Amino acid sequence: GPRYSIMKALPFEREHTSMDSFDMCPDCLHEYTNPADPRFHSQTNSCPHCAIPLHLYHSSKECVTSESEEVLELLNAHLRKGHVVAVKGTGGYLLLCDAGNAQAIRALRMRKQRPAKPLALLYPSLQAISNDTLLNEWEQAALTSAAAPIVLCTPGISPTTSICTELIAPGLHRIGIMLPSNPLLYLVAKDFGKPLVATSANISGAPIVYRDKDALLQLFEIADCIVTHDRQILAPQDDSVLQFTAQGRKIILRRSRGLAPNYYPHTLEKQDRPVLAMGADLKSSFALLDKERLYISQYLGKQGSIEARQAFTDNFQQVLNLSGIQPGAVLTDKHPGYLSTAYGNAFADEHSIPQYNIQHHKAHAAAVLAENGLLNSQEAVLCFAWDGTGYGDDDQIWGSEVIRFEAQRMETFARLASFRQVLGDKMSREPRLSAFSVLEHWPSDQLRLKELFSRKEWDWYLQLIDQPISLHTSSMGRWLDAMAAIIGVCSSNTYEGQAAMQLEALADQYHADFIEPYPARLLEGQIIWSDLVPALLNDLDAGLAKQQIAARLLKTLVEIIKRCAAASGCRKLAFSGGVFQNRLLVEMIGQELNNKYQLYFHRKLSPNDECIAFGQLACYQLENAATAVEYPKEQITGTL
């Protein structure tokens, strides 16, 4: 939690934190040393007489004031003028502006280059949140918990404050809500008295800014003023994000402040040496296991920029320093292009320790199995590992694996019938390309997409699709992107998962006692969707509401799960992968299957790639790779 952001070493004592440079006043020192006082050994103890100094800047070199009360007054004035301000939080800087000021929100989006990605809202109190949203008991408990995460909530029909909902979460039906997670944010929110947009302070594509010098150099491109303080942040932490289904099932979307890096208790067996798992690339996290100790890092974002790679390295070194663990083996994803894999290879070479590649979807399956204590299950479990991208054992792009787990072994049971992978990662950014590929065998219907491309693009892609197929994908994420583009929901993602999220929002607007799925078959280990496409296009031509079409698509996924479960004979079903971040889909699965099957979802980890590192550790246990330690590294580096 917040302690992790200021720790230099263990145990957690003031001299081991970034509070060690601040002397306590006599009153605070008396509290700190008095065993009968509630603040006895409260390592961050301070008061107005020995406060951590605040500073407000109007430029990187112009500190306007360091008087705390004046800082708060000026900050409030900036917000009321519609300005964007940057405030140093627990794990990094946040950007704030008035959630009811459309001009301020547009300015924030333009400066941050974030045209459509949803923004979170900071409220001063739980009562204020209740006035604006349809808050349920699980959401309320999460908001007021010690972790203080962002919780996705449904806006009320008549909110009492004039928040600009469509600007805050364009095309979506739920808004991320949070309460202040530290005293400074509490004072800011209380003084302003209305909802504030609160989003991580970073340049587009880079990790959260947490160092003061970086904030002053970078954030004036976005913020009109910056409020900082003198307590150093040693480990950056974004806000954790989660949501709940109608049945109260928690889905963690981002595991960070308040939830990471500890993971206890865990179900993994003790190994004869510490093991480091490097995770994946897009939603990266790493994990470190040493006997009963397991650390899973906070969300570290996409490893695509120099800043992101440096943040990964810094946090990795932070955990090694705090834990004192020296890894004896390294686990990496099988994808040869992942930066996390390259980093793991380099670390293994530097320390002359063995390194193993683990297939992405096996790691997903192992993660949800391990979370639910099923690695030693005497009964077969059918695991659904559905996501956007994973490097397959056949060097193709997987993403819809249905894996049968029995007697501690994994075997592929089924996967989506594949389609052409177009231009690598560009396909994940442009759902129109997925749609173009999916409609390859319906050339007359492919013309429906022509208006989504320029004439030059269209001619070029037509030539491309005439070439022999060199790379296939069975990605459920890309297939859903294709459906979203075909029905006109989203043709280009300005942020990851945009098409899928807008498809879910659309489906959630359709309310009916019965939703008919589209036709889909299970044939010789393939999920056949060729009958679905004409049926969906017929619905479009008949003028069926897009909300109903979207709901039918999600219901089809549930039907596919049912058919796989029936064909496998398994009574235990487990779910992992980014597709199962879809709250409505998880609700439908619960409604349809809860009485017939035992259902297992992630509980303390996100179903997205943040769970991969944990899954790699679980795969390592299953394969018992530790027995290879006596051989030279070049002989034992390999694939699990």
- Helix share, percent: 25-40%
Strand content: 15-25%
What is the typical, i.e. mean, pLDDT?
A: 93
Number of helices: 22
By secondary-structure content and strand pairing, the structural class works out as alpha/beta
Strand order of the largest sheet: 2-1-9-3-4-8-5-7-6-10-11
pLDDT < 50 runs, ≥5 residues: 625-640
Q: Gyration radius, to the nearest Å?
A: 25 Å
* Counted beta strands: 26
Task: Please tag this protein with its features.
26 strands; 640 residues; 19% strand
Q: Could you describe the 3D structure shown?
A:
Strand 22 (521-523) and strand 23 form a beta hairpin. The strands form 4 sheets. The protein has an 11-stranded mixed β-sheet with strand order 2-1-9-3-4-8-5-7-6-10-11, sandwiched between helices. A 7-stranded mixed β-sheet has the order 22-23-19-18-17-24-25, sandwiched between helices. The chain has a 6-stranded mixed β-sheet with strand order 14-13-12-15-16-26, sandwiched between helices. The radius of gyration is 25 Å and the shape is globular. The protein is built from 22 helices and 26 strands. It has 640 residues and is α/β, with parallel strands linked by helices.
